[in-house]
């Protein structure tokens, strides 16, 4: 097995990944925490993205049910002899 090639740039992706996951030393972490709590959680941001979608979906489903039950198509061509 050949020895591993030496990196010419000195950049180590494993060290970068390890350093990017540590937030205990981040002085700005406390100031950034508000972005992910309370009304700014991922679910709350998603809920506000489509206002009225739930009401519109229920109304459309109700319309489809009412159309099938009450509004029958009377002028269809079902095996009629001329």
UniProtKB/TrEMBL annotation:
Q: Which InterPro entries match?
A: NDUFB3
A GO BP term here is: mitochondrial respiratory chain complex I assembly
Q: Which domain of life is it from?
A: Eukaryota
Q: Where is this region: Disordered?
A: 1-24
Query: Keywords for this entry?
Result: Electron transport, Membrane, Mitochondrion, Mitochondrion inner membrane, Respiratory chain, Transmembrane, Transmembrane helix, Transport
Q: How does it sit in the membrane?
A: Single-pass membrane protein
Listed transmembrane segments: 48-66
Q: Specify whether Cytoplasm is a keyword of the entry.
A: no
One GO cellular component this record assigns the protein to is: mitochondrial inner membrane
The UniProt entry lists the main location of this chain as mitochondrion
In which compartments does the protein localize? Mitochondrion inner membrane
Q: What this chain does, per the record?
A: Accessory subunit of the mitochondrial membrane respiratory chain NADH dehydrogenase (Complex I), that is believed not to be involved in catalysis. Complex I functions in the transfer of electrons from NADH to the respiratory chain. The immediate electron acceptor for the enzyme is believed to be ubiquinone.
Q: Which family does it belong to?
A: Belongs to the complex I NDUFB3 subunit family.
Q: Which named protein is this? A: NADH-ubiquinone oxidoreductase B12 subunit
What organism is this sequence from?
A: Lojkania enalia
């Amino acid at each position: 097995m050949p020895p591993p090639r030496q990196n010419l740039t000195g950049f180590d992706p494993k060290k970068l990944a390890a350093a990017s996951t540590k937030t205990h030393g981040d002085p700005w972490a406390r100031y950034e925490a508000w972005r992910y709590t309370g009304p700014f959680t991922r679910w709350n941001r998603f809920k506000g993205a489509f206002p009225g979608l739930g009401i519109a979906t229920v109304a459309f489903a109700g319309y489809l049910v009412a159309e099938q039950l009450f509004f029958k198509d009377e002028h269809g061509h079902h095996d009629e002899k001329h």
